[in-house]
Amino acid sequence: MLNLKIVVGSTREGRAADLVTPWVVDRASRHGDFDVDLLDLRDWPLPMFAENPQTLGDPSDPTYSDPIVRSWNARIKEGDAYLFITPEYNHSVPGALKNAIDSVFASFGFRNKPAAFVGYSGGIAAAVRAIEHLAHIAIEAEMVPLRNTVLIPRVRSAFEGMNPVDPVADLSLGVMLDDLAWWGA
Question: What helix, strand, coil percent values describe the chain, rounded to 5?
Answer without folding.
Answer: 40, 20, 40
